[in-house]
């Protein structure tokens, strides 16, 4: 059952409580709960509450806000009543909590998050600050993986079933798309129980000519058993393979490993030469030799061309990000200090080195040569450059669906250590590194150069970034596929891909041109082309962003146009019917005689029938709507045919288009049907509220630049996507397609339908 959220007065404090309980209550029993119970439960779920906490304002000259700070089982919530602002911080997003030196006003507590929010609260009493600090430190990084948020998180019954999304992307399907297995590449079951390499997936794709002993031998000669395997097969038969460094030391050789590389060469009919890319700086690779590791010698591996890509290691990247954030977090930001900070962090230089490597790999593949990529263990830099090279080469990976498939393959299946790199639990802090963040940024830099080549928008990259760290979904938990199997995440947690599948409209770019999205895109890697990604690193500095996002405006305008078009079509039909009823065509210039002849049969469906279709399978409907509703028209439908793996099956994402209701069985427009006409006229918003002034959803969620602002197609008001989750057929629309409406409008329509609300 849906709670009566609208009945809570706007801006009322209870609303805050209600929302919190909506989440935590569902965590516990996932069942219908009454409002009274909600409030009751709510009071007991608050762990701590501190009054009169001031929030230090950094940019604006206005006085520090003062308000209560709540600590719940899942969030820290700060309420600034004066400015009607609420800040919710998920515990798993918190990266650090620091007690700063005491001030006359109280004890400052700085909270920084993995989503780059930085807030300093001044707690009046030292004692409170101390307690809060201890609690937060405990909660933001649990000791065991089973204590993570995803194991408690549960969606309401109106949302997806737990299994949705888990079967959306699998390695076999992805390789089938590339035409593998084929005569030269095959799938091996040698790793079925992770016996060859526990950080690789169960199914490995290797040259068909490679005998078992060669695979096993090579695996023993590679760090962590990560032998060379196929990750991408280009249409031109050039292969992209990945592995870890060889255990070569200064002189060790391995016949099987050398043979395996020969097999990789032979699988490519274009050329006998194989390019081996070591993504590390030369000096690091040489240092590894002393530890019995290292890199391939061209002398031992015939027909190979060897090169270093010079990407720094996880420790350099971690420090670089810390310096970048310091620059973003300057107390009194001055131009010189910021520019120096940005330069001194080296961040953009590192991003460039990743893109440089990816471009060079992509070009080599385009030219028909196969490439083998590794770094040390082959799960950080290797994933970065292999993933990025594929974005450049294959248009599919630039679509919404393909991009997710790429992450599922390159990062999840091949074992990027998300738990360690993101610091999900208490581990050695030296394991934490923004490797995946850098990759998302590298993709972002490329989208900036080729906006029409990407089906998805920046918001998708931000959502992925947030949820990699939020631990709300099981998708990014664990360090490899085996971890996720052992933790039984598919049974116990929700999938992030299922969530994305039901929110696709939010992530479509209005600039995408499928016709232009073909083949290899080669980004310009001149230093001047690199931008600072303000929307990620300074996302929460509300004063720094344009007040309106161009892409949101485009989407809103297009949706509004669609709605009005649809309505006009219906009105035309109505006028025509009325004329025929009166027996005299009204010559109002809106239509012509030709049309009149076409509709010589005066059929009209009672619209009630068309939208009173039982809302049986809410979930199914919702999925279909989400996918069917395409504010940008036709730009994703063909790519995203198989979208949602609900109950383990693939369903076709597109609803068949219903024909005009007037052509189907119906009845004459009769006396007394004036009500129907009024219903129709009232059901479509002629004017839509401008997104310009929109600061807050009626539910009091702030609508900052990062929030998707959605219009209710019936009343034209603006809501956050959470409030705009109902889909109905509007009587005033000719197409009878489902449109998004606010909950209030949903009730009106359902009521006028004399339908039982599905609540
Ligand atoms: Zn509405
Ligand atoms: Zn809302």
UniProtKB/TrEMBL annotation:
It holds the Pfam family FYVE. GO terms for cellular component: cytoplasm; endomembrane system. GO terms for molecular function: phosphatidylinositol-3,5-bisphosphate 3-phosphatase activity; phosphatidylinositol-3-phosphate phosphatase activity; zinc ion binding. Substrate binds at residues 313-314, 375-381. It is found in: Cytoplasm; Endomembrane system. InterPro entries: Myotubularin (IPR030564), Myotubularin-like_Pase_dom (IPR010569), PH-GRAM_MTMR6-9 (IPR048994), PH-like_dom_sf (IPR011993), Prot-tyrosine_phosphatase-like (IPR029021), Tyr_Pase_AS (IPR016130), Tyr_Pase_cat (IPR003595), Tyr_Pase_dom (IPR000387). Its EC number is 3.1.3.95. The keyword Transferase does not apply. Belongs to the protein-tyrosine phosphatase family. Non-receptor class myotubularin subfamily. This is phosphatidylinositol-3,5-bisphosphate 3-phosphatase. The lineage of its organism: Eukaryota, Metazoa, Ecdysozoa, Arthropoda, Hexapoda.
């Amino acid at each position: 059952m849906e709670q009566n959220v609208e009945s809570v007065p706007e801006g009322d404090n209870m609303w805050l409580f209600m929302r919190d309980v909506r989440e935590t209550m569902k965590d516990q029993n996932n069942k219908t709960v009454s409002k009274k119970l909600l409030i009751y439960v709510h009071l007991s779920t608050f762990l701590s509450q501190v009054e009169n906490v001031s929030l230090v304002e950094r940019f604006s000259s206005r006085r520090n806000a003062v308000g209560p700070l709540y600590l719940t089982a899942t969030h820290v919530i700060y309420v600034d009543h004066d400015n009607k602002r609420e800040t919710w911080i998920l515990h798993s997003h918190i990266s650090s909590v620091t007690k700063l030196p005491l001030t006359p006003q109280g004890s400052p507590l700085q909270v920084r998050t993995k989503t780059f929010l930085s807030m300093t609260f001044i707690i009046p009493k030292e004692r409170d600050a101390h307690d809060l600090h201890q609690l937060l430190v405990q909660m933001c990084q649990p000791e065991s993986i089973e204590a993570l948020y995803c194991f408690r998180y549960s969606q309401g019954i109106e949302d997806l079933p737990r299994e949705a999304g888990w079967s959306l992307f699998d390695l076999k399907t992805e390789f089938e798309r590339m035409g593998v297995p084929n005569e030269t590449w095959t799938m091996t079951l040698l790793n079925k129980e992770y016996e060859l390499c526990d950080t690789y997936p169960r199914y490995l794709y290797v040259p068909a000519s490679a005998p078992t002993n060669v695979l096993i031998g090579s695996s023993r000669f590679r760090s962590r058993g990560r032998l060379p395997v196929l990750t991408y097969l280009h249409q031109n038969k050039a292969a992209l393979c990945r592995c870890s460094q060889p255990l070569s030391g200064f002189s060790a050789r391995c016949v099987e490993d050398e043979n395996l590389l020969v097999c990789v060469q032979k699988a490519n009919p274009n050329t006998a030469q194989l390019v081996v890319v070591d993504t590390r700086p030369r000096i690091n690779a040489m240092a590894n030799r002393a530890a019995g590791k290292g890199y391939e010698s061209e002398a031992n591996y015939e027909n190979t061309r060897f090169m270093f890509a010079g990407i720094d290691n996880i420790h350099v990247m971690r420090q670089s990000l810390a310096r970048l954030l310091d620059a973003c977090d300057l107390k009194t930001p001055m131009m010189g200090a910021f520019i120096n900070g940005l330069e001194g962090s080296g961040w953009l230089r590192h991003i460039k080195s990743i893109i440089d490597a990816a471009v060079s790999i992509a070009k080599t593949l385009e030219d028909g040569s196969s490439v083998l990529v590794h770094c040390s263990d082959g799960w950080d830099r290797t994933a970065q450059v292999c993933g990025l090279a594929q974005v450049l080469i294959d248009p599919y990976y630039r679509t919404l669906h393909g991009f997710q498939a790429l992450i599922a393959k390159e990062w999840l299946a091949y074992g990027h250590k998300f738990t360690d790199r993101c610091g999900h639990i208490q581990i050695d802090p030296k394991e934490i590194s923004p490797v995946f963040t850098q990759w998302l940024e590298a993709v972002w830099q490329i989208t900036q150069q080729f906006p029409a080549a990407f089906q998805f928008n920046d918001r998708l990259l931000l959502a992925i970034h947030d949820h990699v760290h939020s631990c709300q979904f099981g998708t990014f938990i664990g360090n490899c596929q085996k971890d996720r199997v052992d933790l039984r995440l598919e049974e116990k947690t929700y999938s992030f891909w299922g969530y994305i599948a039901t929110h696709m409209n939010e992530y479509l770019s209005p600039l995408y041109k499928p016709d232009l999205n073909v083949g290899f895109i080669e980004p310009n890697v001149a230093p001047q082309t690199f931008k600072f990604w303000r929307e990620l690193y300074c996302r929460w500095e509300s004063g720094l962003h344009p007040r309106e996002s161009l892409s949101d405006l485009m989407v809103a305008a297009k949706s509004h146009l669609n709605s009005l078009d649809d309505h006009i079509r219906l009105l035309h039909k109505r006028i025509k019917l009325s004329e025929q009823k009166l027996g005299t065509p009204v010559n109002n210039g809106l239509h012509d005689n030709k049309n009149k002849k076409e509709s010589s049969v005066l059929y009209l469906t009672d619209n009630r029938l068309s939208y009173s279709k039982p809302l049986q399978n809410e979930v199914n409907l919702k999925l279909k709507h989400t996918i069917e509703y395409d504010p940008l028209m036709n730009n994703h439908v063909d790519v995203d045919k198989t979208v949602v793996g609900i109950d383990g099956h693939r369903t076709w994402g597109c609803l068949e288009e219903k024909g005009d209701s007037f052509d189907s069985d119906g009845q004459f427009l009769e006396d007394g049907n004036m009500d129907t006409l009024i219903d129709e006229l009232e059901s479509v918003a002629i004017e839509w509220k401008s997104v310009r002034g929109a600061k807050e959803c009626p539910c009091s969620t702030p609508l900052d630049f990062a929030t998707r602002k959605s219009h209710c197609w019936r009343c034209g008001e603006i809501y956050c996507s959470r409030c705009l989750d109902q889909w109905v057929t509007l009587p005033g629309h000719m197409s009878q397609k489902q449109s998004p409406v606010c909950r209030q409008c949903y009730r009106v329509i359902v009521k006028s339908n004399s339908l039982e609300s599905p609540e």
